[in-house]
Amino acid sequence: MSSLAIAFNLTVLGVLSTALAASHYNCDGPLVSNLLQASFEKSSQSSISNAPHFAKLNRRDGAGGWSPQVTDRQPWLQLDLRDRMEVTAVATQGRYGGSDWVSGYLLLFSDTGRAWKQYRQEDGVGRFVGNVNADGVVHHKLSHSIRSRFLRFVPLDWNPSGWVGLRVEVYGCAYKSYVADFDGRSSLLYRFNQKSMSTVKDVISLSFKSRQAEGVLLHGEGQRGDYITLELHRGRLALYLNLDDTRLRFSSGRVAVTLSSLLDDQHWHSVLIERFNKQVNLTVDTHTQHFRTKGEGDSLEVDYELSFGGIPLPGKPGTFLRKNFHGCIENLYYNGINIIDLAKRRKPQIYSGNVTFSCSEPQLVSTTFLSSSSSFLSLPATLSASGGFAVRFQFRTWNPDGLLLSTRLALEPQRLELQISNSRLRLTHHMSAQQKEEVSTGHRVNDGLWHSASLSSRGLQVTMTLDNEPSSTMELGDHMEAGDSLYFGGCPSSSSSDSYCENPTLAFQGCMRLFSINSQPMDLNLVHQGRLGDYKELQFDTCGIHDRCLPNFCEHGGQCSQSWSHFYCDCSGTGYTGATCHNSIYEASCEAYRLTGSSSGLFSIDPDGSGPLGPTQVYCNMTENKVWTVVIHNSTDPVRVQGSTLQKPYIMKFNYSASPEQLMALVARSEQCQQEVVYSCRKSRLFNTWDGSPLSWWVDQGGERRTYWGGFLPGVQQCSCSLEENCMDMNYFCNCDADTDSWANDTGVLSYKEHLPVSEIVIGDTNRTGSEALYRIGPLRCYGDKSVWNAASFYQESSYLHFPTLQAELSADISFYFKTSAPSGVFLENVGLKDFIRVELSSPSVVTFSFDVGNGLVDLAVKSHVPLNDRQWHYVRAERSVKEASLQVDQLPLRFLEAPSEGHLRLRLNSQLFVGRTGLSLSLNSQLFVGRTGLIMTPGVSAGCPGHCSGSSSLCHNSGRCIEKNSGYVCDCSQSAYGGPSCKEEVSVSFNRESSVTYTFQEPFSVMQNRSFQASSVYRGNSRARENMAFIFMTTQSPAMLLTVSTFSQQYIAVILARNGSLQIWYHLHVDRRPDVFSPRPSSLADGHLHRIRIHREGKDVYLQVSNGYIYKRCENFDEEVMQAGSKGFIGCLSSVQFNHMAPLKAALLNRGSSLVSVRGHLVESNCGAPADSTTSHPLSDQAAKTNKDNVSLHDSAVIGGVVSAVIFITLCVVVVMTRFLYQHRQARRDTSIKEKEHQTNLEIASTILMVITVPRCSALGMVEKAQCKGLLR
What is the DSSP-derived secondary structure letter of residue 356? Predict the structure, then answer.
């Protein structure tokens, strides 16, 4: 069956199931206006006339609404709808005739008036926007309805010139449900009328409320191996489904489809399973997963019965989790059959074991600790009859660290601390300021599940217990009794009298419940009312835990992890990087690799950049004038064909090294593609000579049959010899159609790229005596990259281009070049009803990236130290994701802003995308936009830009910048590791054991930080640690030091060859830890051949390109061997050294007279890394002279010295004398290393580079530098 039919059937199933689950359609009636006074409750009221029952929308009774007392720390207004209702919308007003209104609030719901849950909108946003005046009505239609009896409005913000004032209305309708209660030992059995039930379509829907994280909701199985099981496992819903696959029935490798999490929160969750043949939709609440089942059949065959709520018979085959469900299920439908209704009416096909038909409500009330710095709960330590003390409670959290319990002991200054540390539970007995004892237990207790913890003392022992694990015991020197108070979750401020309590790392951020002290349960209602203990930054009667990895916003298969307030993406092995794994680490084309200075070889390219397609490996041929991308397939050798007919033709399908989608993206991006078809024949025709019908053909990328061969135009059944008018028999359009006994040839090149590549060839005329064909389909070859440069000019202020709406809900990246003389102007803009995105030149030296996704205006700006309206090309890249936003201009440091943890995520645009104002070449989401389909151009816009640099990507190579001149252009190679007129000539030096170059430079701290001005307060700056390094080397020595970057704070990066010649990259970014090492491959690189190295680090992720292959790895700890390699120095040739946007080797050699450069030994300029175009290298002095002659400033002094606002010296040693004295010197300094905080994962200030040796002693510096150096080392 076609995919269209499957989609149609699943859609029909979805409509039917929705109809089954719904009991009404017009669910928007007012529910509050008719409520009695007893249905309104409040945290407090400021007066009788401000009582909560006056809080009805548009009413003016009393004082015109509800207002709490001014001293109320956590005000709330509560509604009792008298029964469970379906709520679809809410509306609010301020207090009539006053200046009191609520501008922001939370909405909580509950079935019992206890155990509240926060309602979250589509983006997971919990905050509702309220009023801006007293009488206006703000209406919110809920993205998904609430089915509950109690609602609570919790004001967050109000009129700063007034106070909280509220009138409300709730809209919805009555909700009817069929409920069954399962006690953990009960189940419902639905028995079929026949022996087995076989279905090709199934719709199963239900809602459940669970008291535990494990339990079977549904199970059925058949003798032939079919089964279906729906169960809770670790708070997630798992569906096991198999159709006619006996291998899976008896194997242990059953795979579940899992969805959602935190489903043991004692609140209702809806489930819908829709199946048609093997296609399945699983929906839990608002999240849906589509998948295809295992097995050989299309029908699900279940024998005898389906069980709900558990599996009644132990040891039944096919079961996966034997724990029965404990909780409530309502509205349980199996293919339209109301199972619970049948059970209530005691129908014979239903067996109900210990099931009741009303939902019992446990009183497990939670408390949320909101702040990781200031939350705490203080409870008195009640007396124990047996002496000692005993404390029990449950907790759940995502954070790997946090204080759970702290108490002072009777023997001061001793105290006990129970905390989560590195995801384990740790008990610490502080005997004095210097003396402590610790025990730990558990693993990954920050998994979001409920965990039970208990702490008790008896005699001279303290016992810690976690869940059902064995207890951990600590021996004491004396009897122990707790002090007056127990602090849960954190400590009060240091100004408190109980200053003994200190948060060891962070306060606890999560949920706690079931507090018991010396066997006495603690009533937290008394705490909330101020009658027991004390608290700060708590939310009572609710657990506010939220799964930030649902849905998973990590792109391209990135793995999501989370803390209480943030989520993180692990991009390991994906080929992508960035906060959400959005950016590809690979270039988009071979042309892009050429511009980075690469030579021919195998490369991974990502033709759609940050799009959904992954990277693929191709061969880049850069030895010709054009850069060819070559994609091979599974049959490139000549193939002989005999015995085929039109009825039984020979068919060969070609499988390429790239997927069809990747091939389409590659072809679309390329300027031209071609594929050679070598076809030789003997008595084998391509076309029937009588009626012209094809006897052989090939199939294009879209699956269409093509009958033109070898270079002729599409749609014409001819071969290349007809086009060239040299066919062996001019009566035919192909040589093979002459049907001779001798070999003929119809070889040609297919070049209509929209039809390429060839996906299949069919040959049908080789069955006659002496008839045969010989063919070979060559690889797909493409050249050019249309996105490298495609520009437009704007000659009027009102000129612009407009495109269809930018699709950028969750992520977008925008990159372009521009040049202008205007002092300001908008590059691009797209708006929605409220949201928008804009990139503009806001002043001659400032580029601003602005957007609003519903959290308020965000401005991210980068300021250049030189004007940007200088009629030269400048590069801009802006990116926005649900995690962060960034902006880069030219080689200025990247600016980051982190998104708020509680805010809207989706950028909702609905108008056209406008582009204009300045000459530019534009790419959005890695897709070329200028010249794209759907483009509308207004007057005053033309394709291309005047000037020689309009194609600067092909004029200046290796990050060189094209500069327009009156009579031509020149290339600024100051930020390139290459030299020469086009930045193509390598800068290479041969070293011997006695030679070295030391390059010291000053990095401008304020420029590196590049703090954005006027940034929104809801976004937080983020200085992500990253480096880019590249160089070429050739040596036969190992071990050897290749590159080092080091700072005065004893951080360093080192690239070495180990004893076996393998490459190792060392990172020592934490001076109080052992270094991390990345050892990508065991093969030796000390082989006398040229090797090109590129290294990119972002946080803990390292991406390495050795010659032409990328490798990813996360750093691991190893013993230090850097000094052993350094002691051997380096003998060989180094070339084209680049660190971030600096080229220190070239800068050092061009500035030998500078005090920042020290040269030892004999250096020989060489040509060890000659580029593929065989350009002749010239001495550096000649290059400098040639550059000066062309009036181009290399700005080496600016790069080296910079604008000094906070001087931090970093030394680069280009390599190679490392004596034993230096080794011992480094060892001595390591022993006195300065401790740094663990969260510092970047090199100090951003720094440089290369070829390492060591940081010079302070005595080698000038007076001012010496003082600064000593200050840093002190």
Answer: B
Relative to beta strand 988-991, strand 1132-1139 is antiparallel
Task: Look at residue 290 in the predicted model and tell me its pLDDT.
Answer: 93
Going by pLDDT thresholds of 50, 70 and 90, the confidence category of residue 1214 is very low
CA angle 946, 1195, 1046 (to 5 degrees): 130
- Going along 844-967, which residue ranges are E strands? 846-852, 858-863, 874-881, 884-889, 895-898, 913-916, 919-924, 927-928, 936-937, 941-943, 961-965
Nearest CA-CA partner of 479 in 460, 503, 493: 460
Between the alpha carbon of residue 574 and those of residues 561, 583, 987, the distances in Å are 16, 10, 34
Classify residue 741 as exposed, middle or buried by CB count within 10 Å of its CB (0-12, 13-18, 19+).
exposed
Given phi > 0 = left and psi -120 to 50 = alpha, else beta, which region is 684?
Answer: beta
Instruction: Output the pLDDT for position 262.
Output: 94
Q: Which two tokens stand for residue 1087?
A: 């082989």
First and final C-alpha spacing in the chain: 76
887 and 847 Cβ atoms separated by less than 8 Å: yes
Which token pair is 980? 């020469």
Helices (H), ranges, 609-767: 660-669, 720-724
Predicted confidence at residue 1110, as pLDDT, reads 59
pTM summary value: 0.79
* CA atoms of 360 and 183, how far apart (whole Å): 10
pLDDT over threshold 90, residue 185 = no
Do 506 and 373 form a contact (C-beta atoms < 8 A)?
A: yes
Mean pLDDT of 417-435: 90
Per-residue pLDDT, 943: 76
What's the full length of the chain, in residues? 1274
Least confident window among 223-237, 1026-1040, 1047-1061, 1215-1229: 1215-1229
Q: Where are the beta strands (DSSP E) in 175-293?
A: 179-183, 187-199, 201-210, 215-221, 227-233, 236-243, 257-259, 269-276, 279-284, 287-292
Residue 918, judged by CB atoms within 10 A of its CB (0-12, 13-18, 19+), counts as: buried
The dihedral over CA atoms of 1131, 1136, 1140, 1144, expressed in degrees to the nearest 10, equals 70
**Is-cis flag, bond preceding 413, omega within 30?**
yes
Q: How far is CA 1132 from the centre of its chain?
A: 41
Find residue 330's DSSP bridge partners: 179, 207
- DSSP E strands in 534-582: the ranges are 534-536, 538-540, 559-562, 567-570, 576-577
At residue 915 the predicted structure's pLDDT band, cuts being 50, 70 and 90, is confident
Q: What proportion of the chain, given as a percentage, has pLDDT over 70?
A: 79
Instruction: Cite the beta strand spans of 624-759 per DSSP E.
Output: 628-631, 639-641, 650-653, 672-682, 696-699, 705-706, 744-745, 748-750
As a whole number of angstroms, the distance between CA 219 and CA 430 comes to 52
Cβ count within 10 A of residue 442: 18
To the nearest 10°, report the CA torsion of 169, 174, 180, 182.
Answer: 0
Contacts of 1207 (CB under 8 A, 6+ apart): 1002, 1005, 1265, 1268
Query: What is the C-alpha separation between 795 and 568, in angstroms, rounded?
Result: 45
**For the residues 616-640, what does the mean pLDDT come to?**
89
- CA of residue 648 relative to chain centroid, distance: 51
Q: What is the mean pLDDT of residues 485-499?
A: 77
* Distance in angstroms (rounded) separating the CA atoms of residues 583 and 926: 9
Work out the angle at residue 838's Cα, subtended by the Cα atoms of residues 836 and 841, and round it to the nearest 5 degrees.
160
- Tell me how far apart the alpha carbons of residues 138 and 156 are, in angstroms, rounded to a whole number: 16
Residue 56 has pLDDT above 60, yes or no: yes
d(CA 812, CA 851): 12
Cα 886 to Cα 895: distance, rounded to the nearest angstrom: 5
d(CA 1066, CA 138): 58
